[in-house]
Amino acid sequence: MARSMIHTYFCRKPGGLEDLREDRRKQEVRVDVLKVIQLTATQYQHFLTHISEDMPFLASDRERTYCDLNGVERCLLVTTDSIQGGILVNCEGYHYARYAAEVKDKSSLDLAGVPVERFAEQPKRSCRQQER
Sorted alphabetically, which InterPro entries does this protein's record hold (predicted)? Predict the structure, then answer.
């Protein structure tokens, strides 16, 4: 497991990317990245604009992400090839990003030996979007 110390802020139930960018709340956080989820640019943009909705690529690891007794965030890194950064996600058993934190540069994380999953499925419209 790759443990890193980064300067960020884990936001509970973020409404969008702007919620993750509150500089005044950022502090040193210890994280263990369990898996890197590599999305296409389109999928990543969909994730950012629907971050509080259930995401199929989070489902299989939702029980593995949590904040342990030592304050270490065990999380997933959701990213795409076209950017330097990504979003750290702690689902706490849910299918959505219950806690999320922005990482501006993936190279600040120790990702040695961390598995990478490329998600090929197209983003699905949520039930709320389908009703319109």
Answer: DUF6329 (IPR046292)
Helix, strand, coil % in the chain, rounded to nearest 5: 25, 35, 45
Strands 99-103 and 86-90: antiparallel
Q: Which burial class, exposed, middle or buried, applies to 64 when counting CB atoms under 10 A from its CB (0-12, 13-18, 19+)?
A: middle
Amino acid at 82: S
User: What is the spatial distance between Cα 42 and Cα 39, in angstroms, rounded to a whole number?
Assistant: 8
pLDDT at 130: 45
Residue 128 pLDDT: 43
Q: What is the mean pLDDT of residues 46-70?
A: 95
Q: Does residue 69 lie within any of the structural domains?
A: yes
Is 130 part of a structural domain of the chain? no
Whether the model pTM is above 0.70: yes
Q: 80: Cβ–Cβ under 8 A, 6 or more apart, which residues?
A: 38, 39, 40, 41, 43, 44, 86
Domain carrying residue 47:
2-121
What value does the mean pLDDT of the chain take? 89
Asked if 100 and 87 touch (Cβ cutoff 8 Å), the reply is yes
Alpha carbons within 13 angstroms on the beta-carbon side of residue 36 total: 20
